[in-house]
Request: fold
Amino acid sequence: MPSWEELEQRCRACRGCGLCAGRHHVVVGVGNREAQIMLVGEGPGEQEDLTGEPFVGAAGRLLDEMLCIIDLDRRRNVYIANIVKCRPPGNRDPKPEEQEACIGLLREQIALVQPKLLVCLGRIAATRLIREDFRITREHGAWQERDGRWLTAIYHPSALLRDESKRPDTFRDLLAIRAKAQELGIL
Ligand code: URA
Reply:
């Protein structure tokens, strides 16, 4: 198992796909490295690329509010990362080959954090980490246990900014995440 320092260094030096060409920062992750809860988004946007921190733009501000509702805080008790660590141009979805090039680094991060609960933010993370044919509209909020770890997915905060009608479902999913964390004794 690599140390955090070694892993971060490899992330920052990575040239594993074309996204490295346009980046300002490699966005590795943020939060408590010993958190029991980990969240995984899709990939950095413009603000994240400029600052080097995940979820700092409009979607990030909404994510912070969502976390606050269930007593979570990005610096205290969660760790947040993305499927890809460099910004896809124009905020397009990361291509399968870009995801493939980056997923190993994320898996190493997950192995270092060892979260008991892993929350996928949106379709891209869910199809990568839960199941290839995961349908976010039908399966958000569903739980599955894998190797002693609980996995779920909720709508991506950007989707909630675009479509407010998804917010009540997400509120329920958030409450279920808190309940699961309490049941597991980690919140
Ligand atoms: N959207 C994501 O999926 N991740 C970020 O870090 C920012 C926006």
